[in-house]
Amino acid sequence: MSIPVVIVDDEDIDRYIAVRAIKGSGADCKIVEFDAGDAFTDVFCDDEAFRDQIGEVPPPVLVLLDVNMPRMSGLEVLEQLKKKFDAGKREPTCFVVLIYTSSNNANDRAKVEQFDFVKDYLVKPIDRNIFKAIFEKYYRWEIECRENCGAAKAPDAE
Amino acid sequence: MSDTELERKYRIVLDISPTPLLVVGQDGVILLANDHIESLFGYDSGALVGKDIDILVPDEIKHIHPELRRAFFELPTTRGMGKGRDLFGKHRDGRLIPVEIGLQPIFEGEETLAVVSVVDITERKNNENRIRLTLDAAASAMIKIDDHGRIVLTNASADAMFGYAKDELIGRTIEDLVPERFRRRHSVYRTSYLISRERRAMGAGRELYGLRKDGAEFPIEIGLTPFEDAHDRLVVATIIDITERKTREDEIRQKNAELTQLNEELTQFAYSASHDLKAPLASITGAIKLCQQDIAAGNAADADKLLSRTQRMSERLAQRIEDMLSLARADHVDDVVAPVSVAEAVGDVWTSLGGPDRGDKVNFTTRFGHEDPISTVKVRLLVILENLLSNALKYRDPKKGRSEIAVETHAAGGSFILSVRDNGIGIPEDCRDKVFKLFQRFSNSKDQGSGLGLALVQKHVRYLGGAITFKSTPAGTVFTVALPERPNAAIQDAAE
Asked: What interface predicted TM-score (ipTM) does this complex get?
């Protein structure tokens, strides 16, 4: 079963680079692209749209989130995700949220680290080797997690 | 008693006394005088005997002196003369000598005589004068008050500071110099101070104000020093007018706030700038890596596509750097105010932005309701127009069919008003307070901006002494710039 991957980035070329890097890593992925933070949160908060666009059942969704975007920044997206997680509307273990940004600034990192469900902080440019490592790290226990999610609460069960 | 008897009886006393002395009869005739008094007033030994005492009395009081003398002999007591007044004796050459005079009645048979002792206080008076001059020379105002709060002494600075004539304050209460609203409290503070009597500054932590005679208030600082003389418990208040210092302090505080703000802006600018320059570079690096992969794999077509995108990216990066430079340059424009034709400027800018090449897709209209030319700084006006028009072009809404961009002007109340209206995508409501901030982008438009354009526009508008506002709905946006018709003074103000 392919891994659902969400890329949220306003920059076309960065999304293209990410797609190529993910595909180049050899993993079997179903990639969905969003060109704005709010475009993603709209889907994230809407069960039907989520099912249609990202998928019904886990493996956990890999979310690749840019920080500096117009309108809604990556940090604001994280706020939205946190709200949903805190309210029990979505299960954080069903997501592997990764920040990818060109900023290596300590302040920016600190802001992101406030969100404990963010698994990693990647600095652009990214390439296929980085994604090989990511998939090794987070998707070896993919099956196990799928069971957890199924047993706990289906994200679209309401 | 005859004169010789009198002389025999008192001569020796007079001669050994170190004090100038004379004996005078009820009729005012000098009966005896010692050498001290004669030399004090410039007479030869024995020259005063037989003369009228009034020879030593200053001319101004000669006419009342006999009466005072008679009064003394009616109720002869030992006392000082003229208590509380300044006394003078007249020297033979006419000058007045400040003196203190003691009167001692002696009774010789039926006759009452007076022994008059005269002390030359020239030295003391000089000292007092010197002290007075020193006090008056002091820059700070000094006011001495008694334990009832009555003013007993002021120096020249105090009179000048509070706007009174010399000695006009003497006898008034200190509360006359305190603004009405503090008076009641002040008298309480004063009373408790008289009990504690410590040397200290007044009103620690409070702002103190003095009240001038003309009713004006001014900020002051007051030091209090208690002291006691023979009879009274007194307080000397030293007062400094701190109007200027306060003004300077306020200025410094304001400048400091401005600098802090500027520093924050700079930090923010450096952060955003580095980020906004680094992001496209990271994209370019990533893209080039992919190109290398494509070339290695023989995918020339993919590589070529990527290279085109990379090229566009670097062009955008160059534009961004250009914008930043332009923003920095906004502070260093040579503000030459000259007549500028707005109609011409708008036309030029529109052409330079490639507006006419858009053909039917964009309907560009102008309506000039002001009197051309206007007085302004051309460079700044051009930057303003460029950014507003390029925004209108950049953020068109393809869903609305033909794009409308309209420039309108009119004159109102000493201002030149220019508006740029479009039917573009509008500015999201929750972003409207950030519109003029640096590096703020609101649209996911393909044609990405640097997030600097409107910040730049606002900066130039401010330099021209004008203001910019906008209204935005999903139907479109209108930016309105108001510039002063006579910009010179405004530019001067904005530069300061």
From this structure: 0.80
